[in-house]
Amino acid sequence: MKKDDHELQTALSRYQVISAYLAMEPKHGQRRKLLEQLSSRSWPGPDGEAFRPAPDTIRVWIYRYKRSGLEGLMDKPRPRRGFQCLSDDVIELICRLKQEVPQRSLDRIITIAEKMQLVERGLLKRSTVHRVLESRGLSARKTRIPDSQDLDRFEADAPNDLWQSDMLHGPYLPDPKRPGKTRRAYLYAFIDDHSRLLLHGRFSFKGDLPALELVFRRCLQKYGLCRRVYYDNGQTYRSIHMRQIVATLGIHRIIFTKKKRPMGHGKIEKLNEYIRSAFLAELKVSGITTLDQLNEAFLAWADYEYNQRIHGETKQKPVDRWRSAIDRIRYADEEKLRQAFLWREKRTPDKAGIFGVCGTQYQVGPELAKKRIEVRYDPEVLDTVEIYHKGSFAQRLSPFEVQSHRRPKPAIEPQKPADHPPAANWLGHLMKKRQQQFLHEPSPLELAIAAKTKREKQNHQLVELLERLVEPHVFDEHTIRTYLERFGPFDSERAELLLQQLLEDGTRNDHHVHFYLELIRNHQFGEMT
Fold first, then answer.
1. Domain co-membership, 317 together with 346
2. What is the reported pLDDT for 147?
3. Are residues 64 and 38 in the same domain?
4. How many domains is the chain partitioned into structurally?
5. Which of 14, 225, 413, 456 has the fewest C-beta atoms under 10 angstroms from its C-beta?
6. Cα–Cα–Cα angle for 185, 186, 187, nearest 5°?
7. Residue 526 above 90 pLDDT?
8. Structural element, H or E, at residue 59
9. Single residue among 328, 355, 380 that ends a domain in this structure
10. Given this model, what pLDDT does residue 184 score?
11. Do 308 and 180 fall within a single domain?
12. CATH number at residue 190
């Protein structure tokens, strides 16, 4: 019998064993019993001799048949062992890539070597790289402790149906405020459960609620509204303000992991494990020393490596799987999104109108002195706060007095630079690629400046409107801008319709400019009582 005929006969005899299983399609609780029944029988082999396969062997045959059909039941030729096809330089390169960053996996070593054009594409195979590392004593696998409790896998039905988030302890970086000292960076990241897309992540020196909310806001801006969010039981995730954000934006609800049972959070935990081995480990040869560089490198790594990498479970790139249902994604209005993330606190100013927020003092007008007000603000940008009275916007304030705060941190020695340049600066390669595409991630200050610029544009439109409609001798630009800075902005189109209607009804256009501003304010926001 020829070799090809023998392989076909082997596959057919194996198919005869599994055919009964495939026809019955047993339920989950009956599968093992059926496998044992099939294993207890004698089956004719390709040479006519009877054989009895083990239950686990039959299970493997079923898996291979479902995946590759009849060809999956044929035995693959044994590969030739060894790595004689590699040159000494390539072998040395593989060892250096592993020694520089021990957390680099086989796939990562191959990816870095190929994409940085250190070797020809297709030259390296996983088994070959493994044998090279094994021969040098550089290959080791950690043992895993199995979980004794039953676990079920789950997956969200569609993109943005469920987002998961967690905090990861990052590296120590030089403290910009204390020369010679270091400070730990913390990473908040969000992942889409269905597609495994890394939505956004950002390192900060404080793992507090403002840092988490900034990442959550950028996820909503870039990828639209999600239906549910899945968190652990950390204090920042269980905060009242996080629940307020979810309720304001119409997100269905927050799901928390069961206490002492975090296994349901496995996808984000697996992402954190991958970040440690594939990103944080690369920092050793990257030369990154600042928080901005670290965040830029992480975004480049997420865009060009993680989200472009075929996921082992879904067999798709995360970005492609998320985009498959992009037509169903809903985006929130930017102003509603901004309002949702503003912190809200109650205050009662003293008789001089003075009150404090986060160590910064502000002063309201005399009409709000000693009255209960609501202060809405961004804790990252305290140069402006918004005042609401009885649910209505009243005015916008700048700091009356500013105080600084500092707290000590433990001193930790920074890592010493390597004596020789690394064989592959993978994060630097990704950062350069991202910089070439002119991608920019706005900082909290830039977001605040953009909002201020938009408000100033609206104020300028109203100034032009009043200059056009009122008498020149009553027009006072300084008075108008001062008023708008405190109570604006107003919708210029609605204001124009109001003023034109008043002028048509006989209202004179030579009143003091404050008269028209009060009319516009009362019309758009209602009388303040």
1. no
2. 55
3. yes
4. 5
5. 413
6. 125
7. no
8. helix 55-68
9. 328
10. 94
11. yes
12. 3.30.420.10
Asked if the model's pLDDT at residue 263 lies above 70, the reply is no
- Residue recorded with tokens 């959550």: 216
Q: How far apart are CA 124 and CA 113, in angstroms?
A: 9
248 touches 336 (CB < 8 A)? yes
Rounded-to-integer distance, Cα 47 and Cα 10, Å: 9
What CA–CA distance (Å, rounded) separates 83 from 130?
A: 10
> Residue 528: what pLDDT?
40
CA distances from 72 to 7, 21, 205 (A): 11, 16, 52
Q: Which residue segment(s) compose the domain that 352 sits in?
A: 342-397
Query: Which H helix or E strand runs over 320?
Result: helix 318-323
Please indicate, yes or no, whether residues 189 and 304 belong to a single structural domain of this protein. yes
166 pLDDT more than 60: yes
Give Cα 458 distance to the centre of its chain.
33
- What predicted TM-score, i.e. pTM, was given to this entire model? 0.56
Q: Can you give the pLDDT at residue 407? A: 38
- Domain presence at residue 266: yes
189 shares a domain with 123 = no
Quick check: 137 pLDDT over 70? yes
Question: Within a domain: residue 218?
Answer: yes
Over range 120-139, report the average pLDDT.
87
* 3-state DSSP helix/strand/coil % of the chain, to nearest 5: 45, 15, 40
Could you write out the three-class secondary structure of 173-206? EECCCCCCCEEEEEEEEEEECCCCCEEEEEEECC
Percent residues over pLDDT 90 in the chain = 22
What mean pLDDT is predicted for residues 466-480? Answer: 86
Q: Which residue's entry shows tokens 């905090």? A: 167
